[in-house]
Design goal:
There is one protein chain. With about 500 residues, the protein is mainly alpha-helical. The protein has a single domain, classed as Amino acid/polyamine transporter I (Up-down Bundle), CATH 1.20.1740. The longest helix is centred in the first third of the chain and has 34 residues.
C-alpha cells in the first residue's frame, strides 16, 4: 500500500471516465500486471542484482535497458517526494481542519498557490518548501544509515492502521448525500469507451505504477529474497491485494465526489476545480470534516499515509542507489547523498513552485504512459523473442513456488502484452503529439513531458557507456545462476 493506491488511482480513474476505466484496469491486472510481476521476480531472483546488472548478465548490451528503468525510477522519485510533503502538511492541517468548508480552494489557492497558467516559475511556495526539505532529509537519513528495518517494523503497525482508518472513511463516505451517484459513476461501465486506447493505456500504466513493475523496483528487491522464496504466491497476493485496496480507494473518493456534486447541483464529472492529481487531497479532507473526532482521525490517517508512502519512497530510492553502487566504486553513504541531493534539488525547482502542480501532472503522465510502457515492451520482446529465456525463467519460478506457472504465462509475455502495449502506445503517443494534453502549451509538453522520457533515454546511454568497476566485470563474466545454491553464494555475486 502506498501513494500509488490512494493518490494516483482515484485521479486516473476520474480522468478516464470512472466506470469506463474499471474494465480495462482489471484486464490490465490479469493480462500484464501479474505476468510482468512474475517476470520481474524471476529476473531479479535468478540473476541477482539491480536492473542494470541483471540485464547485463542476461546479454551483452542489456545494461542500457536496466539503466532506462533506473532513470524512470529516478524521475518518479523526484515528484514522489512532493506528494509525500503534501500528505505530511495535511497531517498538520488536520489538527485544526485548516481546509475549512472548501478543501479545493484551500489546496490549490492557500496551500499550493497555483498559478493561473502552466509555465516555468522559480517562485517557490514557502508552505511546501519546509515539509519537502524534511522529506528529503528523512530519505537521506534512512538511506545513509540503512535503518530500513526500523521503518519496515513501524510499517507493520501503521499499514494495518491505515487500512482500518481508510475503511472507516469509506463507510462514512457511503452515507453522504449523493454518494450513490458517485458510485454509479465509478461502477457503471461505459462500453463505448472500450475502443478508446487512451483509457486502456492509462489502466495499464496505473497497474504498472502501483505494482512497481517494469521500472526496476521488483527486479532489485526480488534479488534480496532467499533462494527458496515462493515467488508466484507472493506475486498473486501482492497483485490482488493491491488492486482490491485501489478499488476500495475509488469507492471512498467517488462517494465523496457524489456528495460534492449533489451539493453543487452538478454531475460527478462536472465538479469545479477537480483534476486527477489533487482528487484525494480534496475528497478525504471533506470526509474527515464530517466525522466525529475529525482532527484526531485526520492526523492518524494522513500520518499513516505518510509512513506508507515513505516506505515506497525508500524502495524507489534503493533502486537507484543499488544500481549506482554496483556500477561504480562508491560507498552507500556517498551514493545516497549524491542521488538524494540531485533529486531533492530537482523536486524543489520543478515541483515546489507555483506551477509545480502542472509540472507534476505532465511528468507523471509521460513517464508512466510512455516511459514505463516502453520499458515493458522492450523487456518482454527481448526476453521472450531476442533471448528466448521464458522457458528458463518459468522453470525457475516453478522450482521455488507453490503456484505453478503454465504455458499461458509464455503466451501472455511473448504475444499478448507486447502486442497490446505496442498498439496502445502508438495510438496514445500519436494523440499526445497531435492533440497534446490538458490544453497545456506545446512547448511545455515537449520540454517536461517528452523531455522526461528523453532524459531517461540519455541517462541510460550515458551510464551504460561510463566505465565501471573492474571487479564487477569479472564477476559478471563468471556468473552462472544455476551454480547458486546457498545464501553465502548469493552475497558474493551481489
Amino acid at each position: 500500500v502506498g501513494l500509488g493506491n490512494i493518490w494516483r488511482f482515484p485521479g486516473v480513474a476520474y480522468e478516464n471516465g470512472g466506470g469506463a476505466f474499471l474494465i480495462p484496469y482489471l484486464v490490465a491486472l490479469l493480462t500484464a500486471g501479474i505476468p510482468i510481476l512474475f517476470l520481474d521476480y524471476a529476473l531479479g531472483h535468478r540473476y541477482q542484482g539491480s536492473a542494470p546488472t541483471v540485464f547485463r548478465r542476461l546479454f551483452k548490451g542489456g545494461e542500457a535497458l536496466g539503466w532506462f528503468q533506473v532513470a524512470i525510477s529516478f524521475v518518479i522519485m523526484c515528484y514522489y517526494g512532493v506528494i509525500l510533503a503534501w500528505a505530511a502538511s495535511f497531517t498538520i492541517f488536520s489538527i485544526t481542519e485548516a481546509w475549512g468548508d472548501d478543501p479545493t480552494a484551500f489546496f490549490l489557492g492557500d496551500y499550493l498557490q497555483l498559478a493561473d497558467e502552466p509555465g516555468l516559475s522559480l517562485d517557490v511556495v514557502g508552505g511546501l518548501l519546509l515539509p519537502l526539505l524534511l522529506v528529503w532529509l528523512a530519505v537521506l537519513f534512512v538511506m545513509v544509515l540503512g535503518v530500513q528495518n526500523g521503518v519496515e517494523k513501524a510499517n507493520k503497525f501503521f499499514l494495518p492502521l491505515l487500512v482500518i482508518l481508510f475503511a472507516i472513511l469509506v463507510v462514512r463516505a457511503l452515507f453522504l448525500d449523493g454518494a450513490m451517484e458517485g458510485l454509479n459513476a465509478l461502477f457503471t461501465p461505459d462500453f463505448g469507451q472500450l475502443t478508446n486506447t487512451d483509457v486502456w493505456l492509462a489502466a495499464y500504466s496505473q497497474i504498472f505504477f502501483s505494482l512497481s513493475i517494469a521500472f526496476g523496483i521488483m527486479i532489485t528487491y526480488s534479488s534480496y529474497l532467499k533462494r527458496k522464496s515462493d515467488l508466484t504466491t507472493t506475486g498473486l497476493v501482492a497483485g490482488f491485494a493491491n488492486s482490491s485496496f485501489e478499488i476500495l480507494t475509488g469507492i471512498g473518493v467517488f462517494a465523496t465526489l457524489g456528495f460534492m456534486a449533489a451539493s453543487s447541483g452538478v454531475g460527478v464529472n462536472e465538479v469545479e476545480g477537480i483534476t486527477g492529481p489533487i482528487l484525494s487531497f480534496v475528497t478525504f479532507p471533506q470526509i474527515i470534516s464530517m466525522m466525529p473526532g475529525g482532527p484526531i482521525f485526520g492526523v492518524l490517517f494522513f500520518g499513516s499515509l505518510v509512513l506508507a508512502g515513505f516506505t515506497s519512497m525508500i524502495s524507489i530510492s534503493q533502486v537507484v542507489v543499488a544500481a549506482v553502487q554496483e556500477k561504480f566504486p562508491i560507498g552507500r553513504a556517498a551514493a545516497s547523498a549524491l542521488i538524494v541531493g540531485v533529486c531533492g534539488t530537482i523536486s524543489i525547482l520543478l515541483f515546489a513552485t507555483t506551477t509545480g502542480l502542472y509540472t507534476l501532472d505532465t511528468v507523471d503522465k509521460y513517464i508512466n504512459e510512455i516511459g514505463i510502457i516502453s520499458s515493458a515492451i522492450i523487456m518482454t520482446l527481448i526476453v521472450a523473442w531476442g533471448l528466448r529465456k521464458l522457458p528458463t525463467l518459468r522453470a525457475h519460478l516453478n522450482r521455488v513456488s507453490a503456484f505453478q506457472v503454465g504455458m499461458w504465462w509464455h503466451w501472455l509475455i511473448a504475444v499478448v502484452v507486447p502486442a497490446m502495449l505496442l498498439f496502445m502506445l502508438g495510438s496514445t503517443g500519436y494523440s499526445l503529439l497531435i492533440d497534446g494534453y490538458e490544453g497545456y502549451p506545446t512547448w511545455y509538453l515537449n520540454l517536461l513531458g517528452w523531455g522526461a522520457v528523453g532524459f531517461a533515454i540519455v541517462f541510460a546511454v550515458v551510464f551504460t557507456l561510463m566505465p565501471g568497476r573492474h571487479d564487477r566485470a569479472a564477476l559478471d563474466e563468471a556468473f552462472d545462476p544455476d551454480d547458486l545454491t546457498d545464501e553465502d553464494e548469493l552475497e558474493e555475486v551481489r
